[in-house]
Amino acid sequence: MAETGRIRVAKDKAELVKALISADGAMGPFQTFADAIVFAAALGAKHNKRVPLGEISKREPSPIGQEVFVSRGYDLVIKLLAITETKDIKIISSDEYKHENERLRVLEEYANGGLEILQQELRGAVDYSERVLLLLSMERDNQELKEDEFDLSKFLNIP
């Protein structure tokens, strides 16, 4: 179960998440861990891939406070994923910790599923930004966006 108010990353995906970030000289497609995690969660939800975390990363990225996601405007995405998954509007209630923990667990597991997809898509790539952009371009070319799908391209850190 998610720590109250913290979003965790599976240990086996920690290196990938770090490689997706544009920091410390790296040129990843995302500015923050929160950006990468929400992108991966949206990708996981799009492909209906929800995977339990297993062992949790204790080092970078360590569990990230929910306030980071809220400050970046991702609280709505977290709530939408939870409602879609549980089919229960009560999941967005802020009254009970169990609802908060369930929302975060849904985000974590969809992100973990999305990171598995990204691991496969990015295998052998030198430039993750280019490969993620190519992935998004192929998605757009293969099918036009429907009203009920996420536009994943808004998460990219491309000038």
From TrEMBL:
InterPro entries: DNA_S_mod_dnd_assoc_4. This is DNA phosphorothioation-associated protein 4. It comes from Hassallia byssoidea VB512170.
